[in-house]
Amino acid sequence: MAEFRKGTPFLPDNLIAGEFPRVAKTVTIAQSAALSRGAVLGKITASGKFVLSEADAEDGSETPRAILAEDVDATAADVQATVYLTGEFSTNAITLGDGHTVDSVYWALADVGIFLTPTTGA
User: Fold this and answer.
1) CA distance 80 to 50
2) Which residues share a beta bridge with 79?
3) What φ, ψ does residue 57 adopt, rounded to 5°?
4) What is the rounded average pLDDT of the residues 105-115?
5) What's phi and psi for 69, nearest 5 deg?
6) For 24-42, what is the mean pLDDT?
7) Percent above pLDDT 90 for the chain
8) pTM for this structure?
9) Which of 18, 19, 53, 76 has its Cβ near the most Cβ atoms within 10 Å?
10) Residue 102: its H or E element
11) C-alpha–C-alpha distance, residues 51 and 44, integer Å
12) C-beta of residue 37 within 8 angstroms of C-beta of residue 24
C-alpha cells in the first residue's frame, strides 16, 4: 500500500484554458533571467535556444513560439526546461516580454498551434 506523504499543496494557476491537445518538449532556455511558468518564449535562430520573446529582438526570438511549462532560473547559465508547443492557454496566466501584448502575439502563436483564451478566475 502506498504511503501518503504531506507535501506542498497544489495551487492551480489556470494556465491551461481548454481541451486543445498539448504537446510538450524539453528545450534549452538561454542564460538570461528567471522565468515563470506561462512565459511566452521565442527561439533564437542561431542557437536554437529559447528566451522570453521581446518585440524588439532581432535574433528570431521576437516571434513567439512556445509557452514555458515550469518556473526556471536561467540567470547564471542555460537550463533545460519543458515548454508547450501546442495547447490552449489563459491570457490571464501568461507572461509577455517587452513590447508584446496579447493581440500582438495571438496570431504568431496560433500559427504554431498555441491558442490564447480570455478566462476569469484566480
Assistant:
1) 10
2) 29
3) -65, 155
4) 97
5) -95, -10
6) 97
7) 80
8) 0.87
9) 53
10) helix 102-110
11) 7
12) no
Give the rounded distance of the alpha carbon of 56 from its chain centre: 18
Q: Do strands 114-117 and 79-90 pair parallel, antiparallel, or not at all (unpaired)?
A: parallel
Residue for grid cell 506523504: 5
Contact yes or no for 71/8 (Cβ under 8 A): no
Residue with cell 489556470: 14
Distance, in Å, from the CA atom of 106 to the CA atom of 115, rounded to the nearest integer, reads 7
In the chain, what percentage of residues exceed pLDDT 70?
Answer: 88
Contact status, residue 68 vs residue 39, Cβ threshold 8 Å: yes
Grid cell locating 117: 483564451
Collapsed DSSP state (helix, strand, coil) of residue 105: helix
Q: Is the pLDDT of residue 5 over 80?
A: no
CA 117, 118, 119, 122 torsion-angle sign: positive
With 0-12 CB in 10 A as exposed, 13-18 as middle and 19+ as buried, what is 20? middle
